[in-house]
């Protein structure tokens, strides 16, 4: 199911950005006075480095590449070292569709060996990156340095992950709340920057929602994802498996494991959906990105407290509030500091053109992929004024 949705998302990116550029290609009207003609046009930046992630190896890779290309730039595409094949096939399709040689250069490789070189190069004009916080910060720092032969300031478009929270109010549809938490936490084995890794539940409904989450988690089947009936497949590799299991061990000391807490790396890297309850709001598993099927659950004594907990991480990507209280919804709209906030649904599954996607704080540069201003990040504006 996740692969099917991802293919649809990549198609949406291609369609959306292509049609958007048709509207932007002639610039934006500006005022002119008698005897004067003014134009405001957008021109390409130049050579862009697209560094795409392994967790959405088609949608994000294709979308970020397409955005750079339709705005007139050339691209060096460096996919994640664990997922180069789908990027290679995508480049084949671009050539078959008539893209001129050299517009997109496919460069697979280990980021440690070639990443710094690409970012530092004086001919690099912009870097479009999706990945971890630490790598994104490193890119941002290195890109800020002006190297010999460089005559511009490099632009960085970065999406760097999250620690996303679903808040459940005392006035809420509790079945909707439990389903939103479980599906957002365990879809794609939790390997989404938008995944629900924290649930903050009002104390009045805490026991009911947690109990229902446990019931639902136990119904999620795990196995080879080519079989549609399997809700979860493996995590990406041994390093991820080990990292997730280490966090589960931390969680055993910080809370109470109600379901899961186990994994099997004997044939594939499978981690069972894990719910850790009664966690303190400042616990490590409430603060650090795990990137696996693990959700920490914390109790709030009122709605203000719930929002306070939701905002107490360095990230600010997605969040959700389950409530039937309109005043609380409007309060969250103002005070829940995330780039994508959802009401009465899960915190994953942004749709291109409907929910432009990008986060605040250490979640990145809020570059709102699939939104009305995303292409502008790949261009610069030029004013021409003619007197006659």
What does this protein structure show overall?
This protein is α/β, with parallel strands linked by helices. It is built from 11 helices and 18 strands. The strands form 5 sheets. Strands 9-12-13-8-7-15-16 form a 7-stranded mixed beta sheet, sandwiched between helices. α1 runs parallel beside α2 and α6 packs across α7. 46% of the residues are buried.
Strand tally is 18
Structural class by SSE content: alpha/beta
Strand content: 15-25%
* Arithmetic mean of pLDDT: 97
* Helix fraction bin: 25-40%
Record the strand order, biggest sheet: 9-12-13-8-7-15-16
| Order of SSEs | HEEHEHEHEHEEHEHHEEEEHEHEEHEEE
Question: Helix count, per DSSP?
Answer: 11
Q: Sheet bearing the most strands, described?
A: 7 strands, mixed
Low-confidence stretches: none
Rg (C-alpha, Å): 22 Å
Give the topology, please.
Elements: H1 2-24, E1 36-44, E2 47-51, H2 59-70, E3 74-78, H3 84-96, E4 104-106, H4 111-120, E5 124-130, H5 133-143, E6 155-159, E7 164-168, H6 174-186, E8 196-202, H7 206-217, H8 238-254, E9 256-259, E10 263-264, E11 270-271, E12 274-277, H9 284-287, E13 294-300, H10 303-310, E14 315-316, E15 318-322, H11 326-335, E16 340-343, E17 360-361, E18 379-387
Parallel strand pairs: 2-3, 2-5, 3-4, 5-6, 7-8, 7-15, 8-13, 12-13, 15-16
Antiparallel strand pairs: 1-18, 9-12, 10-11, 14-17
Helix pairs in contact: 1-2, 6-7
């Amino acid at each position: 199911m996740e692969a099917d949705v991802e293919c649809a998302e990549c198609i949406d990116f291609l369609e959306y950005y292509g049609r958007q550029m048709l509207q932007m290609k002639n610039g934006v009207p500006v005022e002119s006075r008698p005897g004067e003609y003014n134009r405001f046009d957008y021109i390409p930046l130049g050579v862009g480095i697209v560094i795409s992630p392994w967790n959405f190896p088609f949608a994000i890779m294709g979308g970020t590449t397409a955005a750079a290309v339709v705005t007139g730039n050339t691209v060096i595409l460096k996919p994640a070292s664990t997922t180069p094949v789908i990027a290679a096939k995508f480049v084949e399709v671009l050539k078959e569709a008539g893209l001129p040689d050299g517009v997109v250069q496919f460069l697979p490789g280990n980021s440690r060996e070639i990443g710094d070189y690409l970012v530092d190069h004086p001919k690099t004009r912009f870097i479009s990156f999706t990945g971890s916080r630490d790598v994104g910060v490193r890119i941002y720092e290195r890109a800020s340095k002006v190297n010999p032969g460089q005559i511009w300031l490099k632009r960085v478009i970065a999406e760097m992950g999250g620690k996303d929270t679903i808040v459940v109010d005392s006035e809420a549809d509790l079945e909707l709340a439990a389903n939103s938490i479980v599906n957002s936490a365990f879809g794609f084995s939790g390997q989404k920057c938008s995944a629900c890794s924290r649930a903050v539940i009002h104390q009045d409904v805490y026991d009911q929602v947690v109990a229902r989450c446990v019931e639902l988690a136990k119904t999620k089947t795990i196995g080879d994802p080519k079989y549609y009936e399997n809700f979860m497949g493996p995590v990406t590799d041994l390093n991820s498996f080990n990292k997730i299991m280490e966090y589960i061990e931390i969680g055993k000391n910080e809370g109470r494991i109600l379901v899961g807490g186990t994994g099997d790396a004997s044939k594939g890297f499978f981690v069972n959906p894990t719910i850790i309850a009664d966690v303190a709001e400042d616990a490590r598993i409430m603060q650090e990105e795990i990137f696996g099927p693990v959700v920490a659950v914390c109790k709030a004594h009122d709605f203000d407290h719930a929002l306070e907990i939701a905002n107490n991480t360095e990230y600010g990507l997605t969040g959700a509030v389950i409530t039937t209280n309109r005043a609380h919804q409007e309060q969250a709209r103002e005070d829940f500091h995330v780039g994508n906030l959802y009401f009465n649904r899960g915190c994953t599954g942004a749709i291109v053109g409907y929910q432009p996607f990008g986060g605040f704080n250490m979640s990145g540069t809020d570059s709102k992929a699939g939104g009305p201003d995303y292409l502008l990040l790949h261009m610069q504006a030029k004013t021409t004024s003619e007197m006659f």
